[in-house]
């Protein structure tokens, strides 16, 4: 089995949709992949937008780390592929 | 011409995918049905090709609101594949190469409603559209017609698949506009 002709964009495609949910820009948050353990910024994820929702995959192992489905009345955020998200906060 | 509520007509065939397009060689391809008792029924590509096929012409309805009418397919009916399978399951989970899953009631696989399709418009099904073979269940939204299908697990209890666990409807009937959970 071989992967080819990827039609994805980078994680900056998540900036607007995540801004709807979180009160800050999430693209600089550092996520750790459950599958391979690699850590990187949300902006570095591979995001498939031609789908019923946004599907973000780990750039190292291709596993799904985030799914975001926007219905008219809800946003569904599935993070089961993300071990943790380290979100930069203003120093108090 | 009738369209389900909220749908618009398209003449082209949009490609939607939750991940990279897969190229699955037919010489290593296999399709496995696993019953709720764990019994496995396996077909390789040659065995699938040797089964009687049908040529359904069906309408497709994608949850992203496009519909494509009168599409011509060739494939093996699930009635044929499930004929010798001893099961009393109520639900099924469809599995794809690449890890995609989708769930549906077992009954929706029967009675001429579902096929393992390997030709579209007279040509081999391209990888972009799920070739070498995809599930075709056109009476449900198209996310249920899993591309790059590799097997079906029969289950006593319902479980949500890839999109069903992220807000999409468990059943997905386009005529009842069952797009999201709660619709």
From TrEMBL, chain A:
State a single Pfam family of this protein.
DUF6510
> What is the protein named?
Uncharacterized protein
Specify the domain of life of the species encoding this protein.
Bacteria
Automatic annotation (TrEMBL), chain B:
Q: Residues in domain Oxidoreductase molybdopterin-binding? A: 23-163
Q: Which residues form a coiled coil?
A: none
Q: Which Pfam families match?
A: Oxidored_molyb
Lineage top rank: taxon: Bacteria
Protein name (database record): Molybdopterin-binding protein
Q: Origin organism of this chain?
A: Catellatospora coxensis
Its taxonomic path starts at: Bacteria, Bacillati, Actinomycetota, Actinomycetes, Micromonosporales
């Amino acid at each position: 089995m071989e992967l080819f002709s990827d039609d994805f964009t980078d994680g900056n495609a998540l900036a607007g949709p995540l801004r709807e949910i979180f009160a800050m820009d999430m693209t600089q948050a550092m996520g750790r992949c459950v599958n391979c353990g690699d850590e990187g910024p949300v902006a570095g994820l591979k995001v498939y937008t031609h789908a019923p929702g946004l599907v973000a995959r780990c750039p190292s192992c291709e596993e799904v780390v985030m799914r975001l489905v926007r219905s008219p009345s809800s946003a569904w955020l599935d993070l089961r592929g993300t071990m943790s998200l380290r979100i930069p906060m203003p120093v108090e | 011409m009738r369209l389900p509520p909220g749908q618009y007509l398209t003449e082209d065939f949009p490609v939607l995918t939750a991940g990279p397009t897969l190229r699955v060689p037919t010489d290593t391809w296999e399709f496995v049905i696993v019953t709720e008792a764990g019994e496995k029924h396996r077909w390789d590509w040659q065995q699938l090709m040797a089964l009687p096929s049908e040529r359904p012409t069906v309408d497709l309805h994608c949850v992203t609101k496009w519909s494509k009418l009168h599409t011509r397919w060739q494939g093996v009916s699930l009635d044929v594949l499930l004929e010798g399978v001893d099961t009393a399951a109520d639900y099924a989970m469809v599995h794809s190469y690449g890890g995609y899953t989708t769930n549906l009631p077992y009954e929706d696989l029967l009675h001429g409603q579902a096929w393992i399709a390997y030709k579209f418009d007279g040509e081999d099904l391209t990888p972009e559209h799920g070739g070498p073979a995809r599930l075709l269940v056109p009476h449900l939204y198209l996310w249920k017609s899993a591309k790059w299908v590799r097997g079906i697990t029969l289950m006593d209890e319902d479980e949500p698949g890839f999109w069903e666990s992220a807000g999409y409807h468990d059943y997905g009937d386009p005529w009842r506009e069952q797009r999201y959970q709660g619709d």
